[in-house]
Every structure is written in C-alpha cells, then in structure tokens.
Amino acid sequence: MSQSFRVLTRSFSSSAARQAAIKNVTIIGGGLMGAGIAQVAATTGHNVVIVDTSEDILKKSKASIEKSLQRVAKKKFAENPKDGEAFISDVVGRLSVQTDAWEAVKNADLVTEAIVENLDIKKQLFSQLDKAAPEKTIFTSNTSSIPIKEIAVSTSRLDRFGGLHYFNPVPMMKLLEVIRIPETSDDTFNALLAFGKAMGKVTVNCKDTPGFIVNRLLVPYMMEAVRMVERGDATPRDVDTAMKLGAGYPMGPFELTDYVGLDTCKFILDGWHAKYPDHPLFEPSPLLNKYVAEGKLGNKVGEGFYKSKK
Ligand code: 3HC
Fold first, then answer.
1. Is the pTM here over 0.90, yes or no?
2. ∠ Cα 162 168 171 (to 5°)
3. Active centre residues (catalytic)
4. What is the pLDDT of residues 69-117, one digit of tens each?
5. Residue 51, in any domain of the structure
6. What residues are in contact with ligand 1 under a 6 Å CB criterion?
7. Which residues contact 119 (CB under 8 A, 6 or more apart)?
8. 169 alpha carbon to ligand 1 midpoint, in Å?
9. Which residue range forms the structural domain that includes residue 164?
10. Ligand 1: residue whose CA is nearest its atom 43
C-alpha cells in the first residue's frame, strides 16, 4: 500500500466524512441491472464508474444506457430535441468505464455490486475491494436472493455494508429496497436512504430476510403460475391475460418471468429450496428446469415461455 493511499484512507475515517453525501458511485457489473443503476445514478448527478471484466461488455453497457437515455429524452424533451441531446451528453459525461476494479473503487463513496448470483464470486470480489477502497466507502450488493450478511462477512467493514435492491427496468421502476444487516451502522443506513432519495427512488426498509420484500412475494407468485400450467389448469397466455385484466398487473407472471430471466428465477428458487427444503412455495419446478436446460432463458435470448424480440 502506497504512502499516499494510507494517508487518503486515514483522512476519511472520521464519522463526519462517513456521513457526507454519496457523490462518487462505482458499479461492479455492467449487465442489465448494473447498466440501469449506473444510468439512474448519472442522471441524478452522481459521478459513476462501471466496472466489468472486458472492454466488449462495457461497450455493450454504454450502448444500452445510451439507448435507454434516448427513450427517456424522447419523452422528456419531446418539444425540444436539442435539449434532449444536451441531456444525454450531460449524463454520459458523468459515466466512465473501467476493467480494473481496484482502481475504480479508490475514490468511491459507494460501491454497488451487480454481478453474477454466486456467493463465492461475490465474496472473492468484496474481499479484494475491501483492501482497495478507502475506509469511508460503503459497500452494497444488488443481490436478488443471497443474504447480504453472507456476502458482507468477506470484508472488515460490516458496519459499512448493506443491500440496495433495484428493479428492472431500473430507469422506470420507482422502488428501491434498502437492506440492513444487524451490524450496519445508523450512519451507513441513513446514507443509503438519502442516496435512494437522491436517485429519485422511493425507499423501503428491509431486514436481511430471503427475497427481502418484493422477491419474497413475487417469485412464489410467478412459480405458482408455472405450477398452474404444469397441472394443465390454464395456458400461460390465459394466466397472463387474467392477471393483467383481473388484477391490474402491468405484465402477467409469464411475461414477467421472461422479462426477469428464467435462469434468474431458477437460481433464486433453487437457493431457497436448498435452505428451506420443506417449504412448498420454494419447490423446484420441472417445467422451469426444462426451459432453462433448453436455453430458453427469456427475452434476453429471444425465447422463454414466449418467443420475443431480443
Ligand atoms: N429505459 C427507458 N425507458 C423505458 C424502459 C427502459 N429500459 N423501458 C420502458 N421504458 C419506458 C419508455 O418510455 C416506454 O416508452 P417508449 O417505448 O415509447 O420508449 C414506456 O416505458 C412504456 O414501455 P413499453 O411500451 O415497452 O411497455 P409498458 O407500458 O408495459 O411498460 C414496464 C414497461 C415499465 C416494464 C411495465 O411493463 C412494467 O412495469 N412491468 C413490470 C416490471 C416489473 O415487475 N419489474 C420488476 C421485476 S423483479 C426484479 O427486477 C427484481 C429482481 O431481483 C428479479
């Protein structure tokens, strides 16, 4: 560790520094969720670095952000496309990309991880970041279903660790679940709530329970729909029509499963089933397993329960 790095680390260790508003945000993982989080953070005035393993992935992340920003600008600046262009270049100007996570966290107030849902990989990542990031940096995970505490124990900053769980598509979905583990300090939790507000999100406070609030209700609901089809009680199309027109949901459960990704749903379900083998709502689904084995992962590959445009 260099002398200047040590001095930098020490100078940020006061609690006053820890409470300072979050300005510099590092997002680890430039996939669908990471790109969406980065887009909203940059749109709301934060300096954002997106980290992923290759330049190619990062190029795709930037392209997806620009595409989404164009959709936003088209609506927001319908009367004045020039202002729309200025808006996009302003937001893009606050975004940068990096393949070196160590470098990317050196100036971060907040790190949010949105990588593959694998506990060992997440732990490996955070234990490295813990050495690279200054003391003030708050670490968060956007995991859908892995307990935050199980990830946080890979670091020496349990008091500065929490969960920020976003929803897809991040630019459109207003909710942010803010999760604390028993060790999360009040300073950290309040900083995360303030950050959520600065991102334009409505926050809800969550404990570190399986699926937090939304996924604990949503995933069993989606799986009950799949089981209904497995029993031959209804077709996916009829279930979707019923839930959209009879319950006012914007998407039916099969459309939503295709949107979220069948592999993601399977991963969540399998994890919960392994932990709670007797829970009937967490039972594996033969139909879901078959589709995933066939590579029908949903919209991202062009086919899930339905065929879709990629
Ligand atoms: N970026 C920017 N704008 C977007 C967008 C994006 N990615 N997606 C949608 N929009 C905006 C655009 O303004 C679009 O208009 P445009 O097509 O003219 O550009 C407008 O939304 C309407 O979009 P669509 O016509 O494509 O479709 P909808 O009216 O159905 O809206 C939706 C799309 C907002 C996704 C809506 O269907 C919805 O709310 N669906 C439910 C999504 C949901 O439940 N998400 C949570 C999933 S669970 C999760 O993420 C947790 C994880 O842990 C599993």
1. yes
2. 90
3. 144, 165, 177, 215
4. 999 999 999 999 999 999 999 999 999 999 999 999 999 999 999 999 9
5. yes
6. 68, 71-72, 75, 144, 167-169, 171-173, 215, 218, 250-251, 256, 260, 264
7. 146, 150, 151
8. 5
9. 3-207
10. 168
Q: Which of 115, 165, 119 is nearest to 274 (CA)?
A: 119
Q: What six digits make up the tokens of 29?
A: 């993982």
Distance from the CA of 136 to the center of ligand 1, in angstroms? 35
Q: 167 and 242: one domain?
A: no
**Tell me, what's the pLDDT at 45?**
98
Cα 171 to averaged position of ligand 1 atoms, centre (Å): 8
183 and 98 fall within a common domain: yes
Read off the tokens for 259.
């949107």
Q: Is residue 36 located within the same domain as residue 182?
A: yes
In a domain, 28, yes or no: yes
Per residue in 133-156, pLDDT tens?
999 999 999 999 999 999 999 999
Number of domains in the chain: 2
Token representation of residue 306: 């339905």
